[in-house]
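Input record, target 12 of the design panel.
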């Protein structure tokens, strides 16, 4: 589809011309995607800018949804507990501790990277232990 630069009306603005580098660049920046993803979207749904925008928005929503663990769905509990090699009860406890993000749950279960919430709890526990030790030492000194 050739882009007629003399026709600058609404119809021309409503279409994405992949043959023009400046249009690919403009739409890629506007939709915050790579030119390759833009070309794939246009191939999938056509040259209409509205259809491409709706398709990209739907794909981003699906990607965000895939990263969350839905405990209300038994197949998801089975999938994630098998993936992390834990029991469903342990998976549910991990989700309760750090939230529904699969990345955070994975980090929590493997212990590779402590999340802020877990780090705060461990710091508080360590602080309580040192306070208890200090009070015990001071009580022993007073008794002696």
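The sequence produced for target 12 reads:
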């Amino acid at each position: 589809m050739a882009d007629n630069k003399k026709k600058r009306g609404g119809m021309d603005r409503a279409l994405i011309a992949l043959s023009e580098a400046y249009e690919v660049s403009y739409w890629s920046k506007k939709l915050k995607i790579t030119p390759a993803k833009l070309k794939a979207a246009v191939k999938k749904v056509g040259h209409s800018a509205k259809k491409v925008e709706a398709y990209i928005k739907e794909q981003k929503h699906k990607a965000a949804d895939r990263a969350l663990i839905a405990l209300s769905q038994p197949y998801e509990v089975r999938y994630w507990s098998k993936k992390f090699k834990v029991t469903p009860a342990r998976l549910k406890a991990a989700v309760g501790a750090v939230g529904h993000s699969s990345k955070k749950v994975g980090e929590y279960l493997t212990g590779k990277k402590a999340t802020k919430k877990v780090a705060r709890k461990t710091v508080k526990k360590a602080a309580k232990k040192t306070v208890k030790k200090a009070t015990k030492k001071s009580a022993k000194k007073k008794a002696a």
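The CA atoms of residues 6 and 12 lie 10 Å apart.
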